[in-house]
Amino acid sequence: MREIIAAPRPGLDLRRHYGHHQSPAIRAGGLIFCSGMLPVDPETGERRHGTLTSEAHVIFGNLKLLLESAGSSLDRLVQVHALIYDSIEYDVLNRVYRQYVASGPPARTVWAVQIEAGFKIQIDAVAAA
Amino acid sequence: MSARREIVSSPQHAGNVMARAATSEAVRGGDFLFVSGLIATDPQSGMRMAGTTASETRQILINLKQLLERAGSSLDKIVKVNVLLHSMLEAPNMNDVYVQFFSDPPPARTVCGARLPDGMKVMIECTALA
Predict the structure, then answer these.
(1) pLDDT of residue A63
(2) Which of these, A58, A122, B17, B30, could form a disulfide with B3 (CB 3.0-4.6 Å)?
(3) pTM of the entire predicted model
């Protein structure tokens, strides 16, 4: 069975704010699949451009809200794709990333890709439900 | 107990570009069906159908629908889609076609810009409930 996880805060509904045809997250088969998380204000949906570090803080705040609203948490992450705009920021990513996955970090792949709206980071996550 | 792993294949797959790249179209594992990154191909000949972002997106989703249904799944059972585009400037062109294939509520999705093989403009991979 496939169950939709609704946006826990109005700003996290990217479909409403930006027309992205996607649900915030889907629960299926004991897992939670999150749509690519972006650094947007959780209340207003406004883009919060900044450094990779500041954008990552906003994203993890949003991811925490989303997972906890679905009865999961950052401690239950299984797999993460960290999409960054340039691999030169790899060490910067690691410094901020480790703060959020203190206990037994999830499997992870880092990709250097082009991210929408000129953002520096996007996080794609699967967590245990 | 270990979950079953089962390759999903089709007669059309034999001659296409993925088969030559030692890639299965999809693999069933546990509750899920994991689908390879698809590019736009003619389902009969397996030849690439390079075109616009919109036309490639449409062809990929037509092929994906058939692939999932052959495997006993469907577009409505997809949980997560990853869309790779040659340029993020083309995201709206992809999205306009994408909305026509997914009824409410749509699956989770991530879209990013990446360098794709053979000059293709779109690649779509997904995970669905088997």
Answers:
(1) 98
(2) B30
(3) 0.95
